[in-house]
Write a structure and sequence with these properties.
Helix content: 40-55%
Number of strands: 35
Largest sheet: 11 strands, mixed
Strand content: 15-25%
Length: 1283
């Protein structure tokens, strides 16, 4: 019975648990209804009411919340809390040392300055928000039955909006209609990712076949999509119609806020995400804030200052207790009673005095240091921005500093991790060579033409001098073309406009697009085509259509080429399928329903035979010309590789002349214009490393798959040839020859791509299509299913050929790397390119030199001996001393640091295993350079994290593409190159550079200066405050440790805040210990920052000792000078304050290496300010602090000759040790000599290398056989390269 009674309760509890589990699943999607259906309904009935509106608010404060919220934020800084506590403690009568209101002044000043700065920044954000919120857009009104103008902020989720050409999108909009006849909308995403090439977006499939304009009143569908997120490359969902039909939605259907409509007169969409829920706003994280290494060191010394403060206060409290104890029961006349009027015991007096002394000695903790550091860093960033040597004229871009608080880290870097493509190279691809059907075409004439252009570049011919005379063989490519307008500019204006807006000089433009064909290859496709040369024409067809290039007319920039009716081929039987250009292969666009598609497939006729394939006039060509403007076509490519291949194919008269969502049109020699029905596009992704298109061939009517990708994956997918037949033997020979040519291309530093194809039978395609459609319509795990679908298709390929594309080194890269290595920086290159290409580029940029040894890491039964066995000839040293040598060869010892390591991605995957990472790191750190090939973005970040965490070194990562973002974010300092691959790397970085070569000056000059300035300024702050506080401490011995001060409280409060603040700010901003020219000529000086030579722990204590010595001098010389006089306390204390100020300022002058008029002015201003305040205060405030009377004190001192004598003698005696020390180490000389001492030894003379080379080669043959790497299943290669 008891069990039965418990069952209902248990079932209820289980139901509640189920409901709780279901809730998160229900919240994973968003349901969007059309707002016009709820115009007359109450607000509570609108299902979209819970979604954010389109008004953006990036401000942090309101008028009511500003004060409490700002104070709350400022109190997150511990120093502010400490100083407020000290100020409030001064309000307690029994322990107060100053006037409570006066003690609040410094804290209020610091908090007020910060609050005013925050308020101004917030006001600027408010103005920007208002401008954006009050922009106009067209929203459909049910009442007026037309589109009416509304402000952006009035837009709501579920509204229909009309978009016009060149209009900025106000929200994330699902595209439902387009004026484009192909139902496309072109957008420019420069504000999101910096890419200026056009992106195609497509109308939702359900609305694709509308014969009339879209009518919002007839819309009755419901949209289910994912919750708002910041992934710009993903959008998933489906639209449900009244009939119950469900169509999938993809990122190609979504227009993102901030993009610009191009090339489309009008488009209509429904708002899916608005305001702060849009992807653009979710990605807007603002500048990054990090804590620098110097700041972490400073916090340790601040802690020591707290300890010193507590020790001084405790010493004073004990002294006061003993002083009071000696009087016994007889109270001294100066004794202060408790608030109740009773006598205090010596112990209670000591406790109260301890708190009083914390108030008096509070200056020891530098309240103004934190504010001063922020000011100096902002000034440093400003001057870095003003350096015209870091400005790139070609791209019209400056250095950008996105993280304001780590400038000094630039001077302490130890490891640099660099991408290759686009970072060390131009990422402007030039077609150089190719191999087709096993025959290599060297393109020698093209090579000579490129050499001529390089000579033109070396002569530095300006673009403007050729703007009006250069023959316009082609138009500029996508990343060079101006923003498109709906109205085309005159032809006469276009040529100079393209030249001006081009990011490079004309010769580089011509290099990319003007290709001189190889005569041997040119004759083959232009002659009558026999069937045995089908591979050649297929090769060029693959180059032309296996991409996502958009075609536009040169006379109408960014206007799509419109085709005549003759362009449509097989339209009646074409599969209404869509493609996707998603590089992640995760959102291939919807295909038709499986039933209808398979039905159409069954009804199709069998493919025609090959006898019609190469007829002089194709069946689909009617001889009519295309309706094109005069002039050649422009290609808008998403990557430079694609543009280079399309231009190469055009040089062989195989031109891409039009691209539609379901059709690609190509012009071939003797065949005219052929339209390939585009069935599917399987986009490129970093895992598959290839892309494919599925087309219906217009000549054979066969379904053909064209694939291009990295040779490392394509060669593994080639169908094994049948060696029993002559055709199979010939095919095997073609594969082997192609592989050999690929190795030669890579050795020449060319980027290699393999081209292949596959013909599908009707049954094969139907089987694959059915499973592919199931993957497309899946909601859960769609990306994985689509990925598996692509893998099923891309098998048993037929190899057509391969290409070699040159990616030129950026100017100044070899010199920059050489300087950085002289500076003691370890440079690692992490690239996804193949090993031979990466090694060749490494040679070209002087990263690697002579091959010293080579061995293989293969898979055998041994497991854990891999690294230890492989590196048996070496002793792996834990230290990085250049003097470490191998003990294996006593005859010719060598330096471990003169080796280079090359490791590929497969080996790296196992080397990063927890059990092997220490050994890998031990070997890698013993090498001068490391080159990681075929590495994925994840591996790049893992390598950086491993080095940073294990070696505890300062790391810098530099890259230009989205695949470098993870590496950039993991490093201590991330640098983005604003290159050809968009702005993803820049947006994730701390600093952005136009070119790699600017990294040299950024680190060696500005990094060195920033670190040196801040390090010296921080140490000076500690010295200055300790010196001033020690003056009061010495006085405690003469006042019974009572907490009294001989210095007026006004001087105590404002000494650091006003009188001595300005000169150190000027020095911290402008001081240069070494000139820029010297720092670049002697890169070894950078080691100064790497070893933290400017800020060692002992330097803090040396400064403390120096401060206490100077305070003794400044205290006792005036003490003995006025010993027998009748001056009052302040008449003696004011000279001490003046002498302390003079000593501190002269000390700063000794530490200053570079003097400017601003240094002189700041010191003169500080002295003038002190005397002005003192004279005015002493003249007008006789009773401000009773019973003391400071009236006319400074005026009397200025009439006393003794005061002037003290002002000369005291600073000289106090600063004599510092002055002698500075004479022993002149500015710049010691640093230069130290740099030469710390620099790495130069390479050994060549005649010393011979015996070692011979011996190492013999050793390699005897001991360096194949070794095991645990878990490795494929052969990988490691190179050691002698520097």
């Amino acid at each position: 019975m008891a069990r039965e009674s418990e069952d209902p309760a248990m079932t209820k509890a289980s139901k509640v648990k189920r409901q709780r589990k279901k809730k998160p699943k229900e919240n994973k999607t968003r349901t969007v209804h059309a707002n016009i259906l709820y115009d007359n309904a109450k607000g509570e009935e609108n299902p979209n009411r819970h979604y954010a509106n389109n008004e953006i608010k990036t401000t942090k404060y309101t008028l009511l919340s500003f004060l409490p919220k700002n104070l709350f934020e400022q109190f997150h800084r511990f120093a502010n809390v400490y100083f407020v506590f000290i100020a409030l403690l001064n309000f307690v009568p029994v322990v107060n040392a100053f006037q409570p209101e006066l003690a609040l002044a410094p804290v209020v000043f610091i908090l007020s300055v910060t609050a005013i700065k925050d308020l101004w920044e917030d006001y600027r954000r408010h103005r920007s928000d208002q401008e954006i919120n009050h922009m106009d857009c067209l929203v459909y009104s049910r009442a007026e039955r037309r589109y009416v103008e509304k402000y952006w902020k009035e837009l709501r989720v579920g509204d229909f909006i009309r978009l016009r050409c060149n209009e900025i999108l106000p929200a994330d909009v699902l595209l439902l209609s387009s004026s484009d006849p192909d139902r496309l909308c072109h957008i420019e995403t420069a504000t999101l990712d910096g890419e200026t090439n056009l992106k195609q977006r497509q109308v939702v499939r359900s609305f694709y076949d509308l014969d009339c304009d879209f009518n919002p009143l007839k819309y009755n569908s419901i949209i289910e999509c994912e919750k708002p997120n910041n992934d710009l490359n993903r959008f998933r969902g489906y639209i449900i119609h009244r009939s119950g039909r469900r169509d999938a939605l993809y990122k190609e259907n979504l227009l993102l806020r901030g993009c610009t409509i191009r090339n489309t007169e009008e488009a209509v969409g429904i708002v899916i995400y608005a305001g702060h829920e849009t992807k653009a706003m979710l990605n807007n994280n603002g500048p990054r804030y990090k804590r620098s290494k110097l700041e972490r060191q400073m916090n340790v010394d601040v802690f020591w200052c707290v300890i010193i403060l507590l020790v001084m206060c405790l010493f004073a409290a004990v002294g006061h207790g003993l002083w009071m104890f000696q009087y016994g029961d007889k109270r001294p006349v100066f004794d202060v009673l408790s608030p109740e009027g009773t006598d205090l015991s010596p112990i209670m007096s000591a406790i109260y005095l301890f708190l009083t002394m914390i108030i008096v000695f509070q200056v020891l903790i530098p309240i103004s240091l934190f504010v001063s550091i922020e000011i100096v860093k902002i000034c440093q960033v400003y001057f870095i921005h003003q350096d015209m040597e870091l400005y790139d004229e070609e791209t019209d871009s400056h250095l950008q500093c996105r993280a304001l608080n780590i400038t000094e880290d630039l001077g302490q870097m130890q490891y640099i991790f660099s991408d290759k493509t686009g970072t060390l190279t131009e990422n402007k691809m030039v077609f150089r060579r190719c191999t087709v059907a096993g025959v290599e075409y060297s393109h020698d004439a093209n090579a000579r033409r490129l050499a001529m252009y390089q000579e033109m570049d070396s002569e530095e011919e300006e673009c403007t001098s050729h703007g009006g005379t250069l023959p316009r063989r082609d138009s500029v490519t996508s990343h060079q073309s101006p923003h498109g307008q709906c109205s085309s500019p005159p032809t006469s204006v276009l040529i100079p406009l393209c030249c001006v807006l081009s990011t490079d000089n004309p010769s580089s433009v011509l290099q990319e697009k003007d290709i001189t064909p190889d005569p041997q290859l040119l004759d083959k496709p232009t002659s009558q085509l026999p069937s045995d040369l089908a591979d050649i024409i297929d090769f060029f067809i693959a180059l032309t259509i296996c991409n996502t290039v958009v075609v536009s007319s040169p006379n109408q920039p960014r206007q799509k080429v419109q085709l005549t009716s003759a362009a449509s081929v097989h339209s009646s039987s074409s599969l209404i399928t869509n493609r996707s250009s998603n590089k992640g292969c995760s959102s291939l666009l919807s295909s038709p329903s499986a039933e209808s598609t398979l039905t159409k497939l069954d009804e199709e006729q069998t493919p025609r035979g090959l006898e019609h394939a190469f007829s002089p006039v194709p069946p689909c060509y009617d001889g009519k010309g295309w309706n094109l403007e005069e002039g050649e076509l422009r290609y808008e490519a998403e990557s430079p590789d694609e543009a280079a291949l399309v231009y190469a194919a055009r040089a062989y008269k195989c031109s891409l002349v039009g691209r539609l969502p379901d059709q690609v049109t190509v012009e071939l020699p003797h065949l005219g214009k052929l339209s390939f029905e585009l069935l599917h596009t399987l986009g490129f992704d970093s895992t598959r490393k290839r892309m494919s298109v599925v087309v219906r061939h217009p000549l054979t009517d066969q379904i053909t798959v064209y694939t291009k990708g990295a040779d490392s994956v394509i060669m593994d997918l080639i169908r094994p040839p049948d060696t029993g037949s002559s055709k199979g033997k010939r095919q095997k020979k073609i594969v082997n020859r192609t592989q050999n040519y690929l190795n030669l291309y890579a050795a020449d530093g060319l980027r290699t791509l393999c081209i292949a194809k596959k013909i599908l039978s009707k049954e094969q395609y139907a089987c694959w299509l059915q499973r592919h459609l199931e993957a497309e319509t899946a909601i859960q795990g769609r990306e994985e299913l689509l990925f598996e679908s692509a893998l099923r298709l891309e098998t048993n390929l037929h190899l057509l050929g391969a290409t070699g594309i040159e990616d030129r080194l950026q100017d100044g890269v070899p010199e920059t790397i050489a300087s950085l290595r002289k500076a003691g920086l370890q440079i690692w290159v992490l690239t996804g390119d193949k090993q031979e290409t990466a090694v060749n580029i490494a040679y070209a940029c002087k990263l690697l030199h002579y091959i010293q040894a080579k061995f293989l890491c293969s898979s055998t039964e041994q497991a854990t001996k891999s690294f230890h066995g492989s590196f048996a000839p070496f002793e792996i040293y834990s230290s990085s001393s250049p003097s470490s040598h191998s003990s294996s060869h006593t005859a010719a010892p060598f330096t471990v640091h003169r080796l280079g390591l090359v490791i590929d991605g497969r080996t790296l995957a196992y080397a990063l295993d927890k059990s092997l990472e220490d050994k890998f790191l031990a070997v890698a750190r013993s090498c001068r350079s490391v080159l990681c090939c075929r590495s994925t973005p994840l591996q790049k970040s893992m390598v950086v994290k491993l080095v940073r965490n294990k070696l505890k070194v300062m790391t810098l990562a530099i890259g230009d593409g989205a695949n470098d973002v993870s590496m950039i974010q993991v490093a201590d300092v991330g640098v983005g190159i604003s290159g050809q691959e968009g702005m993803q790397a820049v947006m994730a970085s701390d600093f952005a550079l136009p070119r790699f070569r600017y990294l040299q000056k950024l680190l060696l000059v500005h990094g060195h200066w920033c670190y040196s300035r801040l390090a010296n300024m921080i140490l000076y702050f500690f010295y200055k405050n300790a010196m001033f506080v020690a003056l009061i401490f010495w006085y405690q011995f003469y006042c019974g440790f009572s907490g009294s001060a001989m210095i007026d409280q006004w001087y105590l409060i404002f000494f650091n805040l006003m009188f001595s603040a300005f000169p150190q700010l000027i020095t911290g901003t402008l001081d240069k210990d070494v000139s820029a020219e010297t720092l670049q000529q002697l890169p070894q000086l950078y080691v100064n920052g790497q070893n933290s030579e400017e800020y060692k722990p002992y330097m803090f204590w040396m400064n403390m000792i120096d401060a206490f010595y100077q305070s003794l001098v400044c205290f006792f010389i005036p003490y003995f000078a006025y010993a027998d006089s009748d001056v009052d306390l302040f008449t003696w204390g004011t000279p001490i304050t003046t002498l302390a100020l003079f000593t501190i300022l002269v000390h700063l002058g000794i530490e200053t290496k570079t003097w400017t008029w601003m240094n002189w002015l700041s010191i003169a201003f500080s002295i003038a300010l002190f005397f002005t305040v003192a004279l005015c205060y002493n003249a007008s405030c006789p009773t401000c602090y009773t019973p003391s009377n400071p009236y006319w004190t400074m005026q009397r001192l200025l009439q006393d000759p003794l005061f002037y004598l003290l002002c000369v003698i005291t600073p000289l005696v106090a600063l004599l040790p510092s002055w002698i020390n500075s004479l022993q180490k002149p500015a710049g000389t010691s640093s230069a000599s130290a740099g030469s001492r710390w620099g790495h030894p130069s390479p050994a003379p060549r005649h010393h290398r011979g015996p070692f080379y011979k011996q190492s080669n013999r050793a390699g043959g005897a001991r360096w056989g194949p070794q095991t790497l645990r878990g490795a299943c494929q052969i990988s290669t490691l190179y050691f390269l002698q520097k």
